[in-house]
Automatic annotation (TrEMBL):
PANTHER family: SEC14P-LIKE PHOSPHATIDYLINOSITOL TRANSFER FAMILY PROTEIN. It holds the Pfam family CRAL_TRIO. Residues 108-261 form the CRAL-TRIO domain. CDD domains: SEC14 (cd00170). InterPro entries: CRAL-TRIO_dom, CRAL-TRIO_dom_sf, CRAL/TRIO_N_dom_sf. Coiled coil: none annotated. It comes from the Eukaryota. This is CRAL-TRIO domain-containing protein.
Amino acid sequence: MAASCSFRSVVRAPPLSRSFARSTVRCRSAATPGAGGAASTSSKLVVEVKERLAREHPGLPTGSNGRDDEDMILWFLKDRKFSVDEAVSKLTKAIKWRQDFGVSELSEESMRGLYQTGKAYVHDSLDIYGRPVLVVVAAKHFPSTQDPVENEKLCAYLVEKAISRLPLGTENILGIFDLRGFRVENGDLQFLKFLIDVFYYYYPKRLGQVLFVDAPFVFQPMWQIVKPLLKSYASLVRFCDSETVRKEYFTEETVPPDFRS
């Protein structure tokens, strides 16, 4: 195993989950309303987006995570600071991706081969901030021998699974990249770019924080390439050791088995 090195932590303390519903967001097309007025304005914008999607993109699916899913529309409106044009554009891309990628058809059974490698999983317990936890074990990722499309499908399935476990009032998840034992052959820039797109375009604001745990020296060149691609998402990254994971993010009863001392 390569010796671990100390990267500068971009985030020094784990942030508390912040609710979009409680954030102060000014609608671009209206003056600052009161609480009731804000809700009324949001509802009108949701209807406007839904009508535009139906009119401009009638071929998009409907139902859960479809063009008439009002919860999804509201989430993307908030992500785009209530710009209808931007929300329509981003939603169209996200819904088309879900349809083309077959997200609704993914299951543990369909992913069984890769799932059983243990390279990535959703932890059974929440962290101390009430967030579902997605763990990636980098040393079990071998891009030269594993199908890249299947890797991407496993990623999408696990993100969906983590989000489905969000408790009421919690809106984002914790991602943990276990880098212990990481070697050059585990590096996969193509997959990391896919992962960045997933959380920016298709699941915006769903990633609350990312922990890179016990990163070895050989990971540093990849980080220097990936960091600029993350843009504002780089502020979500924290480099830490396994002890920090145990003490700052979980209780003795809830810590993932791989991180128990």
